C-alpha cells in the first residue's frame, strides 16, 4: 500500500488543526471582552414577554420586559421596597373624602423615538388621560386595538371606580373616584398602568399603522426598544434623554432562556450577566464563586396547596385540617426551596404590615392528622388528586417536585394520591373551572396592599371561576375584608385583617407553604440592579464596572 | 421435479447454514461481548426489584446529591449516589433498566407481530392494492422516526404509554417491508413454484418454506428495532414528551439531571451511560447476527 | 429514463398526499378551526385544506396569533444552516475516515476507526450533546453554551443565515462577527453529525473494500497504478452512487437529530419551535412544522433518487 496520500492527508490534518486552533485561540478573547465591556448588559430571562404593553398582559415576563425599562407610571415604588415615590407626577393631593386625586406632572419628560415616530413635545396631561382612557372607555379608538383586553385595569375594577379624569392644566390631572379606595395610589404605581404617548398614536393613525402601537413601543423609560425575536432575544438601547437616570449601559439584551439549566449554564459561561430564577442548586454553586452575587428581596408572594372546598371530602374542615398536619413542610423548604424561603402561616407574610402572628403555627404531625381523619370519618383513607402547576415561578421553583414530596407524606396517613399536570394555559383554565381536587399554586402580589392577597385569592366574588381556586366562600370573612378595603385608617385596617386571618386559621381553605424571596444571580461587575418585592426587575440606574474594580 | 427431493435438499442446506452461522457469530468477539453485556443488563432488569437497595421513589431528603462511592463524600449506602430529592440512583437505574427493556421488548413484539401480519397479508393482495400499502409504508419510513413519534404524541398527548404507541407505529413499516418482499421473493422461487405445481396448499407452503426463509431477516430487524425503540423512548423522555417524572426512566432522568449538570454531574452521566451501553451492546449483537444470518454475506 | 423519473415523481406525490392527510388530522385537533372551511364534510374539508396550503395560507397559531408559514420561514434558515454544516462534516469527515480505514484494512488503524465509529453510532446524541457542553463550554470555556452569535454583535436579520448575514450585513464588526457565528455552530454541528458520520465512515469503508476485491482493480494494480489513484479515481467513483444513497438515508437521521440538538443548544430553529408548539398544544403550528419538515425530507429523497438514477443505469427500471 502506498503512503503518498498519507502525507497529503497529514497536510490537511495540519490545516484543519490550525484552523480549529485559530477558532479556539481567537474566539475567547473576543467573547471575554464582550462580557467585561462596559456597554453591553445581557440578562437571561425566563420567558418571552406575551406583549410589549403591560396594560394588556399581567404576566411576569411582560412586566420585566416593559415597565421599569421602557415606561414610567405616575408614581412608582422606591427600588427594592414597597414605598411610593414620585415619578411622572411630582406631587399629589387627595380631598378629605378620599375621592378626588390631583396630580402635578413633571414638564421635562421626553418620549423615545423610532423609525415611525419622532416626538415633537414632552409628556403632558393629554398623555396621562389618553393612557387611562384607552383602558377605561370602550369607545376609545385604541381600546380594541389588536383584540386587546386590559386584565389588570379591569381586574381591579378601575373602569367602575374611576368616575372621571380631567385635564386641569398642561401638567395637571384630576381623577375622581366613585367611592374611597385606600389602595388607589398603590394601584397607580403598579407597572400595569404606564403612561404612553398620545402623539405616537395620532401619528400612527394618520399613517394607518395603528397596529404597530404596542409592537414597536414608545415610552419614557431609561431604555428604548430596538428589536424583539420571540423566544430568542429582546434588545434595548439606552435612552439618553431620560428625565432621571443615565445608565452606563448602552445596550441591554434580554436573552430569553426558559430552561433553568440552560440559563445557569449560559450565566456561568459568561454569556449573560444576570440570571433570573436560579434553582436552589444554582444558589449553592453561586455561593462558592466570589464573582457572583445574589440579590434577594423579601417577597410579597405565597405558595399554597389549595383544597377545592366544593368537592368531598375536602368540604369537611376536619379533613382540610388533617391535610395541614400531614405535610412535612420543613423537608419541602429544604428540597424545593433550599431553605431560602420562609414557611408560610397564611396568605400574608411577615413583610406585610397586616401580618398577624398566630398562636398555633402550622406543624407537621402525621399522628394528629390520622386522628383528625378518623374523627371526620375517613380513617381508612381515600384517593386524592394533586394538580401541580407545570411552570416555574418565584414562589414555587418546582411544583412537580413538591407534589412528589407531598405524595410521599400522604402515604403516611393512608391517603394515596396521583399527580396531575397540563400545559399551563389548559391547567389554569381547568383549575379556574374547578376540575381539580387539590392544587399547588401561588400568588405574587402586584401591589403592596394586603388586600391584594385576600380579595383575589379568598373572597366569595372570586370563588366562582375566579382566582379563588379553593372555591371557598365564607360570608363573615368576606364582610371583614370588604370593610378593610374601604377603611383608610391603617390601625383599623390592621384589626380587620387580624380577624380575617383568625378565620382562615380555623377554616384552612389551603395549606400555606412558603413565602419565597425574589432571587437574582448577578456578576459582581454589575451594580445597581434592583428587584422589587413585587418581583419586577429594574435596570434604571444599572452600571457595569471593570473586572479589576469588582474585587 | 420431485417436491420431496427439493424439500430435503433445502432442509440440509439450512442445517448447514445454521451451523456456519453459529461459527461465524462465535468468532465475532464484538457480538459475543454485546450478547454478554445485554444478557447481564437483562438479568439486572429481571432481578432488579430484589437487589435494589431502596424503592426508586423513596426520598432521603437529608441526603440529596450524595456523590457515588468513589467520590469524596460518597458512601456505600448509596453507592452510585443520590439525586436532587435524595433518591438512590442505583435503584432508579435498575428500575429504569426494567422499564426501558421491558417496554422496548413489548413495543418490538407488538410492532413485529403487526408488521409481519400486515406484510404477509399484503403479499397476497392484488398488485395495485399492494403498491398502495407499500407506498404508505414508504412514507412512514421516509419520515424521520422522531418526527413521526412527535406527531403521534402531539395528537394523543405526552406520557409513557402514548410514547410507546408512537414508537410501535414507527417500527411497523420495516417489518411489513421485510415480510412482504421476503414472501414475494420466495413465492417466485423455483421450488415454491414446483410445490404449487405439486398441489401443496398455500398455508403449508407458508409455514414450511417461506417462514423459515424470512425469519433470519426478521431476527436481525428485531434487534435493530429494539435499539431504535429504546433510543426513541429515551429521546421522547428527554424532550419531555415521554415518561413524566417521577417515573424512573433513563431519558426522563437525564432531562431532570440537566439542571444539576455542574453541581452533580453524576446524575447526568449515569443514566446516559446506561443508555449508551445498552444501545452499544444491542448494536454489536445485531451486527454479529446480521453477518452470521444474512445469506448474501454468507455466500 | 423519462419513465423512471415519472415513477419517482408519482411516488413522491403519493407520499405528499399521505403527509397532508396526517397534518390535516393534526389540524383537526385544534379547538379553533385552522381555516374557514365551507363544507361540513371532513372529506371535502381536506381538499379545501389543500387549497389553502397552495395559497400559502397555513393557518394562524392559536397561542401567539402569528402566521404559521411565516413563523416557519423565520425559524427555518437557522435549522438549514446547522443542517448543511453538519452534512458537510458528515461527508468530509465520514468519507475520509472510511477511506483511511479501507486503505489500511486489517491493521490497527482500521480497527480503531471501526471501533470508534461503532461507539459513534451507538451514542444517544442527547447525552453526547450534554457531555460536549459540559466539557467544552463549561469546563474548558472554548465554545459557547447556546445561541447563534454573541449578543455583543447586533446583526440585522437579512437572509436569516447567520454566517451569510455577518458577511453581507451592514455593521462595523468585520470578520470577527463571522467567526463568532462559526464558533457557535461547531458544537451543535458536531453533536448532530456524530451518528451519521459514523455510519458514513462504515459504509464508505465497506463499499471501497467491496470494490477493491473486483477484477478490474486487480488489473489496474497489475498495470502499476498507485493505490491512491485506484482509490480516488476508480474505486471511489464506483462507490459514489451507493455513498449518495447512504447520504440520502442520513438526512432522516439528521432530521431526528436536529430536534434534539436544537433543544440542547437552544438553537432558534424549526425543531425548537416545533417542541415549543407541542408543549403549548399549538396545533396549527405543530401541523405546519411537521408538514414543512417532512416535505423537506421527501423533496430531498426525490433529489437523491434522481441523482442516483443518473449515476446507475441498472436503476432505470420501468414503472412497476
Please give the oligomerization state of what you see.
Answer: heterotrimer
Rg of Cα set of chain C: 23 Å
Amount of helix of chain C: over 70%
Give the averaged pLDDT of chain C, no decimals: 84
**What is the CATH topology descriptor of chain B?**
MetI-like fold
Describe this structure as you would to a colleague.
The complex is a heterotrimer of chains A (551), B (299) and C (320). Chain A has 18 helices and 23 strands. Chain A is an alpha+beta fold and 551 residues long. In chain A, strand 15, helix 13 and strand 16 (416-420) form a beta-alpha-beta unit. In chain A, helix 16 (475-486) runs antiparallel to helix 17. The radius of gyration of chain A is 26 Å and the shape is globular. The N and C termini of chain A lie far apart (63 Å). The relative contact order of chain A is 0.14. Chain B has a single domain (37-52, 74-298), classed as MetI-like fold (Orthogonal Bundle). In chain B, 76% of the residues lie in helices and 0% in strands. Chain B has helices at 3-27, 29-51, 89-123, 127-142, 145-156, 160-188, 190-198, 202-238, 250-257, 265-293, 295-298. In chain B, helix 3 (89-123) packs parallel to helix 6. The radius of gyration of chain B is 23 Å and the shape is elongated. By secondary structure, chain C is mainly alpha-helical. Chain C has one domain (2-319): MetI-like (MetI-like fold, Orthogonal Bundle). Chain C contains eleven helices and no strands. Chain C has helices at residues 2-27, 42-54, 68-103, 108-121, 125-139, 162-168, 175-212, 215-222, 227-265, 270-280, 283-311. Chains in contact: A-B, A-C, B-C. At the B-C interface, helix 4, helix 5, helix 8 and helix 10 of B face helix 1, helix 4, helix 5, helix 9 and helix 10 of C.
Entry summary:
The complex is a heterotrimer of chains A (551), B (299) and C (320). Chain A has 551 residues and is an alpha+beta fold.
Question: Keyphrases for this structure?
Answer:
heterotrimer, A: 551 residues, alpha+beta, Dipeptide-binding Protein, domain 3, seven-stranded mixed β-sheet, six-stranded mixed β-sheet, disordered N terminus, C: mainly alpha, MetI-like fold, 11 helices, 74% helix
Amino acid at each position: 500500500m502506498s503512503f503518498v496520500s498519507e502525507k497529503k492527508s497529514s497536510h490537511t490534518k495540519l490545516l484543519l488543526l490550525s484552523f480549529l486552533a485559530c477558532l479556539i485561540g481567537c474566539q475567547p478573547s473576543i467573547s471575554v471582552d464582550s462580557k467585561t465591556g462596559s456597554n453591553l448588559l445581557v440578562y437571561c430571562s425566563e420567558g418571552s414577554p406575551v406583549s410589549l404593553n403591560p396594560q394588556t398582559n399581567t404576566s411576569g415576563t411582560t412586566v420585566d420586559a416593559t415597565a421599569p425599562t421602557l415606561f414610567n407610571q405616575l408614581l412608582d415604588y422606591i427600588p427594592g421596597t414597597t414605598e411610593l415615590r414620585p415619578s411622572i407626577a411630582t406631587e399629589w393631593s387627595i380631598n378629605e373624602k378620599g375621592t378626588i386625586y390631583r396630580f402635578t406632572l413633571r414638564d421635562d419628560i421626553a418620549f423615545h423615538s423610532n423609525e415611525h415616530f419622532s416626538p415633537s413635545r414632552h409628556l403632558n396631561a393629554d398623555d396621562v388621560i389618553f393612557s387611562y382612557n384607552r383602558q377605561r372607555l370602550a369607545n376609545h379608538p385604541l381600546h380594541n386595538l389588536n383584540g386587546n383586553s386590559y386584565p389588570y385595569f379591569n381586574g381591579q375594577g378601575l373602569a367602575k371606580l374611576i368616575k372621571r379624569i380631567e385635564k386641569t392644566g398642561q401638567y395637571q390631572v384630576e381623577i375622581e373616584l366613585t367611592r374611597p379606595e385606600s389602595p388607589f395610589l398603590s394601584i397607580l404605581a403598579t407597572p400595569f398602568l404606564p403612561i404612553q404617548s398620545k402623539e405616537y398614536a395620532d401619528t400612527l393613525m394618520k399613517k394607518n399603522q395603528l397596529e404597530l402601537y404596542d409592537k414597536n413601543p414608545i415610552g419614557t423609560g431609561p431604555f428604548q426598544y430596538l428589536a424583539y425575536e420571540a423566544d430568542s432575544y429582546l434588545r434595548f438601547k439606552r435612552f439618553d434623554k431620560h428625565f432621571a437616570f443615565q445608565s452606563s449601559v448602552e445596550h441591554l439584551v434580554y436573552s430569553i432562556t426558559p430552561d433553568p439549566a440552560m440559563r445557569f449554564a449560559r450565566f456561568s459561561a459568561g454569556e449573560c450577566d444576570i440570571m433570573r430564577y436560579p434553582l436552589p442548586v444554582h444558589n449553592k454553586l453561586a455561593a462558592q464563586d466570589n464573582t457572583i452575587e445574589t440579590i434577594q428581596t423579601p417577597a410579597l408572594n405565597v405558595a399554597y396547596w389549595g383544597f377545592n372546598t366544593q368537592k368531598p371530602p375536602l368540604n369537611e374542615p376536619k379533613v382540610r385540617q388533617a391535610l395541614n398536619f400531614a405535610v412535612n413542610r420543613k423537608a419541602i423548604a429544604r428540597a424545593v426551596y433550599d431553605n431560602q424561603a420562609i414557611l408560610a402561616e397564611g396568605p400574608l407574610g411577615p413583610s406585610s404590615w397586616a401580618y398577624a402572628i398566630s398562636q398555633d403555627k402550622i406543624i407537621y404531625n402525621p399522628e394528629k392528622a390520622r386522628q383528625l381523619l378518623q374523627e371526620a370519618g375517613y380513617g381508612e383513607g381515600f384517593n386524592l388528586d394533586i394538580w401541580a402547576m407545570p411552570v416555574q415561578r418565584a414562589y414555587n421553583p418546582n411544583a412537580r417536585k413538591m407534589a412528589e414530596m407531598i405524595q410521599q407524606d400522604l402515604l403516611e396517613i393512608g391517603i394515596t394520591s396521583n399527580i396531575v399536570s397540563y400545559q399551563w394555559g389548559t391547567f389554569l383554565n381547568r383549575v379556574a373551572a374547578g376540575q381539580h381536587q387539590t392544587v399547588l399554586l401561588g400568588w405574587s402580589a402586584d401591589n403592596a396592599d394586603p388586600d391584594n392577597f385576600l380579595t383575589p385569592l379568598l373572597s366569595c366574588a372570586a370563588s366562582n371561576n375566579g382566582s379563588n381556586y379553593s372555591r371557598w366562600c365564607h360570608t363573615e370573612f368576606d364582610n371583614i375584608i370588604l370593610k378593610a378595603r374601604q377603611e383608610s385608617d391603617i390601625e383599623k385596617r390592621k384589626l380587620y385583617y387580624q380577624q380575617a386571618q383568625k378565620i382562615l386559621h380555623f377554616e384552612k381553605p389551603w395549606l400555606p407553604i412558603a413565602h419565597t424571596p425574589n432571587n437574582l444571580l448577578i456578576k459582581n461587575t454589575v451594580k445597581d440592579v434592583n428587584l422589587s418585592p413585587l418581583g419586577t426587575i429594574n435596570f434604571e440606574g444599572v452600571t457595569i464596572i471593570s473586572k479589576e474594580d469588582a474585587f | 421435479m420431485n417436491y420431496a427431493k427439493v424439500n430435503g435438499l433445502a432442509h440440509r442446506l439450512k442445517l448447514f447454514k445454521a451451523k456456519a452461522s453459529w461459527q461465524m457469530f462465535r468468532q465475532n468477539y464484538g457480538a459475543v461481548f454485546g450478547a454478554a453485556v445485554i444478557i447481564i443488563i437483562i438479568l439486572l432488569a429481571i432481578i432488579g426489584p430484589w437487589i435494589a437497595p431502596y424503592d426508586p421513589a423513596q426520598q432521603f431528603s437529608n441526603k440529596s446529591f450524595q456523590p457515588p462511592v468513589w467520590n469524596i463524600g460518597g458512601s456505600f449506602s448509596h453507592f452510585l449516589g443520590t439525586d436532587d430529592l435524595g433518591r438512590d440512583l442505583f435503584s432508579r437505574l435498575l428500575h429504569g433498566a426494567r422499564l426501558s427493556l421491558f417496554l422496548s421488548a413489548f413495543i418490538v413484539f407488538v410492532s413485529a407481530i403487526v408488521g409481519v401480519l400486515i406484510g404477509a397479508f399484503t403479499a397476497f393482495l392484488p398488485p395495485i392494492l399492494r403498491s398502495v400499502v407499500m407506498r404508505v409504508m414508504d412514507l412512514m419510513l421516509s419520515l424521520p422516526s422522531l418526527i413521526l413519534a412527535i406527531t403521534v404524541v402531539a395528537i394523543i398527548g405526552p406520557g409513557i404509554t402514548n410514547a410507546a404507541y408512537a414508537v410501535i407505529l414507527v417500527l411497523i413499516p420495516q417489518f411489513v417491508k421485510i415480510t412482504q418482499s421476503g414472501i414475494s421473493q420466495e413465492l417466485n422461487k423455483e421450488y415454491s413454484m414446483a410445490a404449487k405445481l405439486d398441489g401443496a396448499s398455500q398455508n403449508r407452503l407458508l409455514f414450511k418454506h417461506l417462514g423459515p426463509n424470512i425469519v433470519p431477516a426478521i431476527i436481525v430487524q428485531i434487534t435493530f428495532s429494539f435499539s431504535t425503540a429504546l433510543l426513541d423512548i429515551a429521546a421522547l423522555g428527554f424532550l419531555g414528551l415521554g415518561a413524566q417524572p417521577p417515573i424512573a426512566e433513563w431519558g426522563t432522568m437525564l432531562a431532570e439531571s440537566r439542571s444539576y449538570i455542574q453541581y452533580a454531574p453524576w446524575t447526568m452521566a449515569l443514566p446516559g451511560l446506561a443508555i449508551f451501553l445498552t444501545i452499544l451492546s444491542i448494536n454489536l449483537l445485531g451486527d454479529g447476527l446480521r453477518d452470521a444470518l444474512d445469506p448474501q454475506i454468507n455466500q | 429514463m423519462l419513465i423512471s423519473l415519472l415513477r419517482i415523481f408519482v411516488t413522491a406525490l403519493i407520499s405528499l398526499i399521505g403527509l397532508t392527510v396526517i397534518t390535516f388530522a393534526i389540524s383537526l385537533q385544534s379547538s379553533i378551526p385552522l381555516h374557514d372551511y365551507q363544507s361540513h364534510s371532513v372529506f371535502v374539508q381536506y381538499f379545501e385544506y389543500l387549497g389553502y396550503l397552495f395559497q400559502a395560507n397555513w393557518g394562524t397559531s392559536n397561542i401567539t396569533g402569528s402566521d404559521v408559514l411565516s413563523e416557519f420561514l423565520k425559524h427555518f434558515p437557522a435549522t438549514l444552516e446547522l443542517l448543511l454544516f453538519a452534512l458537510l462534516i458528515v461527508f468530509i469527515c465520514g468519507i475520509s475516515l472510511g477511506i483511511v480505514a479501507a486503505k489500511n484494512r486489517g491493521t490497527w488503524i482500521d480497527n480503531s476507526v471501526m471501533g470508534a465509529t461503532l461507539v459513534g453510532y451507538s451514542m444517544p446524541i442527547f447525552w453526547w450533546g450534554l457531555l460536549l457542553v459540559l466539557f467544552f463550554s463549561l469546563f474548558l470555556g472554548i465554545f459557547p453554551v447556546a445561541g447563534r452569535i454573541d449578543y455583543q454583535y447586533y446583526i440585522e436579520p437579512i437572509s436569516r443565515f447567520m454566517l451569510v448575514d455577518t458577511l453581507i450585513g451592514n455593521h462595523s464588526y468585520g470578520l470577527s462577527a463571522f467567526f463568532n457565528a462559526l464558533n457557535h455552530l461547531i458544537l451543535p454541528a458536531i453533536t448532530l453529525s456524530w451518528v451519521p458520520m459514523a455510519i458514513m465512515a462504515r459504509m464508505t469503508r465497506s463499499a471501497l473494500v467491496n470494490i477493491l476485491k473486483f477484477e478490474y482493480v486487480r488489473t489496474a494494480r497489475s498495470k502499476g497504478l498507485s493505490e491512491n489513484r485506484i482509490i480516488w479515481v476508480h474505486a471511489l467513483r464506483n462507490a459514489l452512487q451507493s455513498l449518495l444513497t447512504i447520504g440520502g438515508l442520513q438526512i432522516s437521521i439528521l432530521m431526528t437529530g436536529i430536534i434534539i440538538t436544537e433543544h440542547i443548544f437552544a438553537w432558534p430553529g424549526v425543531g425548537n419551535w416545533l417542541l415549543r408548539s407541542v408543549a403549548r398544544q399549538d396545533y396549527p403550528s405543530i401541523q405546519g412544522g411537521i408538514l414543512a419538515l417532512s416535505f423537506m425530507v421527501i423533496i430531498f429523497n426525490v433529489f437523491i433518487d434522481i441523482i442516483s438514477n443518473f449515476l446507475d443505469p441498472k436503476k432505470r427500471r420501468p414503472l412497476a
